[in-house]
Model the fold of this input.
Amino acid sequence: MRISIDVGGTFTDVVLIDDATGRIHYTKVLTTHRNLAEGVIAGIDRILKMVSSSFDRVDYIVHGTTIGTNALIERKGARTGLLTTEGMRDVLDIGRIERPAAGLYDIFVDTPQPLVPRYLRREVRERIGADGSVVIPLDEETARREVRFLKEQAVESIAICFLFSFRNPAHERRVREICQEIFPEATVSISSEIAPEFREFERTSTTVISAYLQPVLDRYLDNLEGQLKERYGRVDLRLMQASGGSMTARDARGRAVNIVNSGPAGGALAAAYVGKLTGDQQIIGVDMGGTSFDIGLIDRGEPRVAPESQFEGFPVKMPILDVHAIGAGGGSLAWVDRGGALNVGPESAGSEPGPACYGLGGERPTVTDANLVLGRLNADYFLGGEMKLYPELAEKAIREHVAKPLGIPLEEAASGIIRVVNANMVRGISVSSTERGFDVREFALLPFGGAGPLHAVELAEDLGMRRVVIPMYPSTLSAVGLLVANTRYDYVTTLAKSQEELVPAELLAAFKELEARGRAQLKAQNVPDELIEIQWSADIRYAGQSYELNTPVTRKEVLTQADIDEVIARFHQLHYRIYAYGSAEERVEFINLRVGAIGKVPPVSFVRRPRAGSDPSAARKGSRPVYYPAYGFIDTAVYERDLLQPGNVIEGPCLVEEIASTSVLTPGAKGTVDEYGNIIVELGVGSSAG
Done:
């Protein structure tokens, strides 16, 4: 058996796969923010009890956590110092001298303040040249002096980033040794290991983020591993990475930056996996939980991977699944601003106290409260009946904070909350698709998270989409994605050569050196050769361009000039597909070489069931009034998800309830259950999309 755990802002999702039977089991518990490990242990205990088994049968646990993301958002990372080359102290302030894209015309917007204040950024006399040669030898005395200063300032963590250390890491490694001699209590991160590639600002930023988060992650892992060991004995714990692969907890202790945004990465992998089952190659996966709304685009069956991205406005240089998040979830708070306009989010009620309807002390209205008031949620069947909701508390919160200030009826206020949050999500989807040159009408919308299926059909109608795939296990699909994820380690080296300078043998040797490191790391974890997969790629650009496109390279034992020409032709095609422009006559440059070392895990299999008839009446469990903006309250059929059979056809308006989620099909929508239990919703011309 394998277990995955996805700790969210409101709920902790736990999924167990029994490889002997192929069955998938899941549960949800409230996230325990005071001690996250308590919620994790509670979830594991609950799911083991559900399957009447002991932990002895569990092979490993994969964990996706928001611990790093939250520390960045709240600026609650470690007190960090930076050691850098003499004259490079202000790299974090200077950056790229660019304004944030989101506030290009806002005179008040600014880039985020560096995570390391200027007085904790210290210069060391040394210099490595662009070719890796030593221009100025390392002055160890200045290094010792600056390390002592950082110790006196009580930093917890030290980032070391010297000029051109990706060409020659000797100085960084020596200064790390000095740190360990003088200040052994401090965590030390060096750029030649965290981000060994060119671009000084991005490399420094990535190393600083990793150093800033490392003590936070280490404390979390100490607590979690300690409690897991005390309760279950030996535990193989793996952490999800933003790149879409997992890594051991031991390796994560040196690369904290890799686990930021790890939960959303699991969702993107799961969306791609479901797409393979349904035959959808173009998917927009949307994960609506209690706090955030994560958007991942699946292009030609694969999640989009960016070689670099940003975390909370800070650039990072590492492969990351391209997932965009906004503050829109079931717990997002509704509020009326001073101008009398209704807003929803980004602030969330979280799990403590949570939405007003939880009855845990929350008094402000949320999206969940609005869905309850509109009849979309069953107060007696939330989490399968394990958690009771209180409609009267939801009504009171909406009436006091929205309906009265705006002078409108309760239902109109609740419907307004839904319309506003939907508009926020539509804008977020457009940023991730339309603004990048994709036509959303060519995509299927795949919603997950506890609240995703509640809003998905309306979102698709607003976007002009015609197909929605509501997957099995939607509320815990991100956790399922963690189990789909293979073990993965990524390696990079900067080449920076034009196509005329490339020598096939030199290119092959560089790839092979990175590959050898990857194979060694996987074999140290007892991954057999037959389960190791190696992927090669190169960051390529036209001469004179500032940024590159990551281009796949076919792995071969021998590389020839014809193979290089094939890669260049692939780059031209890729450039044209993304930018609608390409020029085969232009010279290109190979900037970075990348190798992904993948250790394959056992496949996840959804149970395939034979098709039944189209009549869903055996799954119908009643009806209730549900509010739709264009119609008001309509008596709406309610179906039990677990009783729907492949081939059943359901027509909107209707609700489909399951243990941890509810799907809303609006008037005019039609859903068909496929052999895996996914509900394929088709939106015709008669829907409210017009």
